[in-house]
Amino acid sequence: MAPVFHPITLAFLFFFVFHSSLAAPVTYNVANFGAKPDGKTDSTKAFLTAWSNACGSTRPASIYVPRGRFLLRNVVFTGPCKNKAINIQIDGTLVAPSDYRVIGNAGYWLLFQHVNGVSIRGGNLDGQGTGLWSCKMSGKSCPNGASTLGFSNSNNIAITGLTSLNSQIFHIVVNGCQNVKMQGVKVIAAGNSPNTDGIHVQLSSGVTILNSKIQTGDDCVSIGPGTSNLWIENVACGPGHGISIGSLGKDLQEQGVQNVTVKTVTFANTQNGFRIKSWGRPSNGFARNILFQHAVMVNVQNPIVIDQNYCPGNKGCPGQVSGVKVSNVIYQDIHGTSATQVAVKFDCSSKFPCSGIRLENVKLTFKNQPAQVSCNHAGGRAAGLVQPDSCL
Ligand SMILES: *[C@@H]1O[C@H](CO)[C@@H](O)[C@H](O)[C@H]1NC(C)=O
């Protein structure tokens, strides 16, 4: 007798098969495409093959990188892809070539462009940048260097629990993106390493950086022209050059920076805390609606600084003033120690003075005494306890 299936059982079976084949993500393990965890076999091709499979998949896809060290030359992971959910799970370490010249002129070591819905979970990226830093520090002529990880013209990106070590130049760059969430990111490079910014954001909107720890030789986070709706919370910075908006106003035509929130940050032995910096030359750029809130400064050289007379080497700007308009910048609940006498310095444009600067509950000391403040073309007001006395 033929077996009889109840219609509901059939419906369940049908649903299960149909549903799982549509929705279950397909996983591409780089080891299955020839990647070797030995730290010396070039695995670039294997990663690219895994990428083209994941990107070409019409359903959500995962790329899996197992434990071990995988040597990669510079790679561009290009979209658009056929799905909107590619998850890259990294249990191991990606290693750049030890000879810095191999990727030194590539711009990026690992670049994602025109992708939508890519997330990276875990992993270590070892940029092996120390050779290039020595070259630069010796004054020889060297390649510019490659940033370790870049997202360009991409949307809906998540980076979680990633560690970037010894990048040649910038560690993570977000350029021309919307909706990028970084959480639990670690950046580690020497305090004297040149141009090794931790996270650089520009021409992007809706970027969030949470619960991250950045120790490096340049800005922990640098915020370039065209950044809006940026949220940074719970970040430890140091060594490094602090969290910087700028340099702005290098170009005459430039997109501004607006709606930036930076809260709950510690700076330890950094060059700056909260900095806004613009070139001393004409520009239509601006920085407005900025909130710096809840910070602890430990031995920071310039805890609070606006510098609108940036002109390195006195080239390209002598005798000119910044066109960048700085307005509505709030500093709230900031305390700790300054490593120099002047802990708060507002050096604004004489042509476009800073306006709407607010200091609220700010207490900074230098050698156990109230530190000093300096104001040039800065308008605004102080509220609550402010030590040293405000000069606004
Ligand atoms: C400012 O940015 C935050 C995200 O950081 C966003 O939630 C908020 O809506 C933005 N505010 C304005 C006025 O655009």
From TrEMBL:
Q: What is this protein called?
A: Polygalacturonase-like
Residue positions of the active site: 241
Top-level taxon in the UniProt lineage: Eukaryota
Sorted UniProt keywords: Cell wall, Cell wall biogenesis/degradation, Glycosidase, Hydrolase, Secreted, Signal
Q: Which InterPro entries match?
A: Glyco_hydro_28 (IPR000743), PbH1 (IPR006626), Pectin_lyas_fold (IPR012334), Pectin_lyase_fold/virulence (IPR011050)
Q: Which family does it belong to?
A: Belongs to the glycosyl hydrolase 28 family.
The protein's matches in PROSITE patterns, at most eight in alphabetical order, are given as: POLYGALACTURONASE
Recorded source organism is Quillaja saponaria (Soap bark tree)
Q: What is its main location?
A: secreted
Protein localization: Secreted, Cell wall
The UniProt GO MF terms for this protein read: polygalacturonase activity
Statement: the UniProt record of this protein carries the keyword Nucleotide-binding: no
Which N-terminal residues, if any, form the signal peptide? 1-23
GO biological process assignments: carbohydrate metabolic process; cell wall organization
